[in-house]
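sorry to bug you again but im stuck and you know this stuff better than me. theres a chain ive been looking at and ive put its sequence and its fold in token form underneath. id like you to explain what the token line says about the fold, in plain words if possible. anything you notice is useful, everything is just below.
___
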Amino acid sequence: MSENKQMAYPASVDSTPTSANQEDHVSMACHDARRLLAMSENLFTIIGIETLVAAQGIECRSPLKTSPLLQSVMEYLRKDITTLKADRYMVVDLEKVHVLVSGGHLLSILPKTIFPQLELK
């Protein structure tokens, strides 16, 4: 998260003067777009970690149940990523959950009324 906070500084405040300051303001939009892509990847990782932690926490409270909707998300998640029962190397788990989050797979099993999805045409 801290990395994203640092990258959130607007590039437009650091315009590069051109033609002896006679040209239009340089927007630096390309630089900002590349930075936004990196921030998005970081966000997918953060959401993935939060998802794993939430699932683990819910499972620790067993035999208590969660909502049917959240249970369906957990079942989908646990098809690929097993419950953490002992200390283990988690890079593979983090890579898998990153794919589930960034690819929209977890959102795809939820009703669109809960998380409306942008349809690109």
